[in-house]
Amino acid sequence: MDLHKSGPRDGEPALATWDVGKRYGRRWVLAGATLRVPTGGVVALVGPNGAGKTTLLHLAVGLTAPDAGHLMVFGRSPRAATARGDVGFVAQDKPLYRRFRVGELLRMGSGLNPRWDQRYALLRLEGLGIDPGRRAGSLSGGEQAQVALTLALAKRPRLLLLDEPAAALDPLARRAFLDHVRAETAACGITVLHSSHDVAELDRACDHLVVVRRGTVVHAGPIAELIAAGHGLEDFVLRALGGDHASEAAA
Ligand SMILES: Nc1ncnc2c1ncn2[C@@H]1O[C@H](COP(=O)(O)OP(=O)(O)OP(=O)(O)O)[C@@H](O)[C@H]1O
C-alpha cells in the first residue's frame, strides 16, 4: 500500500480526541475522554464491560457523533476519514451478512470502497483455506472473524478499528488471529486500535496501551515503557482500573 501519497503529516496522530463526551439520554457514557493514538503499531483499548470502548470506536468511525469535545482521524473528522476509505472497522459479534456467499461480500466491498484490493482479499482467503463460494453463516466462528478481518483489510484503511473481533475464539485461534493482525498490519503500515478484555496477551500482540474506566481514558502510552519500568501489565491495568474490573454497566 502506498501510504506516501495520502500519508499523515509528520507527528500527526491516527486518532486524537479532546475531552470527548457521549451521552444516552441524561447518562454520560463517555466524559472528558482525551487520547492521542500515534500512527503505526497496534494499540490495545482495554477496560471493563460498559467502560465505553465500543462507544469510542463508534465515534472514531463516525457511526455516532460526540455530544461534547471533538475528535480527528488523520486530521479529519471521522466521517470524512471513513468516507475516504481511511478507516476500517470490524464490529463485535462477527458482523457478516450470514446468507451471503463470501465472494458476494467481497463484491460488495469492492463496490463500496475506493481503495479496495480484490487480489489481496482472494489471496488472504486462499491462504486461510476459506472458499469464497461458501455462505458466511456456514463458516466457523474463527473463519467468520477472519473473513470480517479480510473485508476490513482489503479496504486498505490507514486506521483499523477492531472491537473484540476474536472474543468468541478459543485461546489458540485467538492467538493465531492476533498474530495475523500484527504481521499484516505491520507489513502495510496500518495503525490498529484493538478493543480487548484479554490483558494477558497484550504485551505480545500490542505496542500501546489505552485504559478506559467509566467513560474516561485513565492511561495511554507505549507498553514497552511500562515493561521497562518493571510493571506487570495485568497488575498495571488492574491498578489503573482501581478495582473496576467487573461490569460497570449497572453503575
Ligand atoms: N445505544 C445506546 N443506548 C443507551 N445506552 C448505550 C447505548 N450504547 C451503549 N450504551 C451504554 O453505554 C455504556 C458503554 O457501552 P460500551 O458498549 O461503549 O462499553 P464497552 O466498554 O464496549 O463494553 P463491553 O466491554 O461490554 O463491550 C454502557 O453502559 C452501555 O449500556
From TrEMBL:
<keyword id="KW-0547">Nucleotide-binding</keyword>
<dbReference type="Pfam" id="PF00005">
    <property type="entry name" value="ABC_tran"/>
</dbReference>
<dbReference type="InterPro" id="IPR003593">
    <property type="entry name" value="AAA+_ATPase"/>
</dbReference>
<dbReference type="InterPro" id="IPR027417">
    <property type="entry name" value="P-loop_NTPase"/>
</dbReference>
<keyword id="KW-0813">Transport</keyword>
<comment type="similarity">
    <text>Belongs to the ABC transporter superfamily.</text>
</comment>
<feature type="domain" description="ABC transporter">
    <location>
        <begin position="15"/>
        <end position="239"/>
    </location>
</feature>
<dbReference type="InterPro" id="IPR003439">
    <property type="entry name" value="ABC_transporter-like_ATP-bd"/>
</dbReference>
<protein>
    <recommendedName>
        <fullName>ABC transporter domain-containing protein</fullName>
    </recommendedName>
</protein>
<keyword id="KW-0067">ATP-binding</keyword>
